[in-house]
């Protein structure tokens, strides 16, 4: 029997050393360092260990149970990012594992950040190293359950597991597979980022379309606050109003002209701003008293 890198193996404790135990089979043995022992063990015990390569690329063993193996997917947390290399994830052992750059989106702006979570499996390379690979669509489908029409317009939360230019794919907490079209988000979420939205369509195959945009009333209040804060930074005046072009509004506020007009209308109705000759101004006390 040959011990397989990235797997949980049943081995025998062969002998004790100054720094740990040699464990394995009659054909092969590896070191189980004292730091990697869980509980009490003795020579000739049969134990389960995870086989991996340490930071010196030596094959070694641990009694700690990893979150993923070469046979099992799991969610793992990003612990560091190296732009020209990839991201490292914590799988529950002493060594962090690399998700290589070629597994990640081509656009660095949507790479995961520390704390984001990825659904991965391990792979052993030809030079006896372990890397983590992202789940493919068919792997995510094995996790999925079908959404029903009763979920329409309900709030959902989940993580982005695939990022494309046209939109983001998410797995919700309910294990629904969802798609967020680029038009249904204000900014592109990162791979592995947790997002919250609402279901805007339940499709025949049980998957869902999700919007990350706030509902109209909530959105109007958020947009109004954003416009007001922008005006505060300009001393209470801005060269934008009802007649401003949609492209200029999109570039400055990242919102549609319709959303901008609704938010501006709310500020005017609340008596906070007024418009004059294409500009919008704060309503001062003397103006309000006229």
TrEMBL record:
<dbReference type="InterPro" id="IPR036390">
    <property type="entry name" value="WH_DNA-bd_sf"/>
</dbReference>
<dbReference type="InterPro" id="IPR036388">
    <property type="entry name" value="WH-like_DNA-bd_sf"/>
</dbReference>
<dbReference type="InterPro" id="IPR003029">
    <property type="entry name" value="S1_domain"/>
</dbReference>
<dbReference type="InterPro" id="IPR039566">
    <property type="entry name" value="CvfB_S1_st"/>
</dbReference>
<dbReference type="GO" id="GO:0003676">
    <property type="term" value="F:nucleic acid binding"/>
</dbReference>
<dbReference type="InterPro" id="IPR014464">
    <property type="entry name" value="CvfB_fam"/>
</dbReference>
<dbReference type="InterPro" id="IPR012340">
    <property type="entry name" value="NA-bd_OB-fold"/>
</dbReference>
<dbReference type="InterPro" id="IPR048587">
    <property type="entry name" value="CvfB_S1_3rd"/>
</dbReference>
<dbReference type="InterPro" id="IPR040764">
    <property type="entry name" value="CvfB_WH"/>
</dbReference>
<dbReference type="Pfam" id="PF17783">
    <property type="entry name" value="WHD_CvfB"/>
</dbReference>
<protein>
    <submittedName>
        <fullName>S1-like domain-containing RNA-binding protein</fullName>
    </submittedName>
</protein>
<dbReference type="Pfam" id="PF13509">
    <property type="entry name" value="S1_2"/>
</dbReference>
<dbReference type="Pfam" id="PF21191">
    <property type="entry name" value="CvfB_1st"/>
</dbReference>
<feature type="domain" description="S1 motif">
    <location>
        <begin position="4"/>
        <end position="64"/>
    </location>
</feature>
<comment type="similarity">
    <text>Belongs to the CvfB family.</text>
</comment>
<dbReference type="Pfam" id="PF21543">
    <property type="entry name" value="CvfB_2nd"/>
</dbReference>
<feature type="domain" description="S1 motif">
    <location>
        <begin position="153"/>
        <end position="213"/>
    </location>
</feature>
<dbReference type="InterPro" id="IPR048588">
    <property type="entry name" value="CvfB_S1_2nd"/>
</dbReference>
């Amino acid at each position: 029997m040959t011990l397989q890198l990235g797997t949980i193996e049943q081995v025998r404790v062969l002998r004790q050393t100054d720094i740990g135990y040699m464990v394995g089979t009659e054909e092969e043995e590896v070191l189980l360092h004292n730091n990697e022992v869980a509980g009490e063990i003795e020579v000739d015990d049969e134990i389960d260990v995870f086989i991996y390569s340490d930071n010196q690329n030596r094959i070694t063993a641990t009694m700690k149970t990893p979150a993923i193996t070469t046979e099992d997917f799991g969610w793992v947390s990003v612990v560091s990012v190296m732009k020209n290399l990839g991201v490292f994830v914590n799988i529950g052992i002493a060594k962090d594992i690399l998700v290589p750059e070629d597994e990640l989106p081509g656009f660095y702006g949507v790479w995961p950040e520390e704390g984001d979570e990825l659904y991965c499996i391990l792979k052993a390379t030809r030079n006896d190293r372990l890397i983590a690979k992202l789940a493919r669509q068919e792997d995510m489908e094995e996790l999925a359950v079908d959404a029903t029409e009763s979920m329409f317009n309900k709030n959902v939360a989940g993580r982005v597991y695939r990022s494309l230019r046209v939109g983001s794919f998410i797995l919700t907490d309910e294990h629904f597979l969802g798609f967020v079209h680029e038009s249904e988000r204000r900014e592109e979420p990162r791979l592995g980022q947790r997002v919250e939205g609402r279901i805007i369509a339940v499709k025949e195959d049980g998957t869902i379309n999700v919007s990350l945009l706030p509902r109209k009333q909530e959105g109007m209040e958020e947009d109004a606050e954003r416009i007001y804060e922008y005006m505060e930074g300009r001393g209470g005046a801005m060269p934008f109003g009802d007649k401003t072009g949609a492209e200029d509004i999109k570039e400055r506020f990242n919102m549609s002209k319709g959303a901008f007009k609704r938010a501006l209308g709310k500020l005017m109705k609340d008596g906070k701003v007024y418009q004059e000759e294409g500009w919008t101004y704060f309503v001062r006390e003397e103006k309000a008293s006229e």
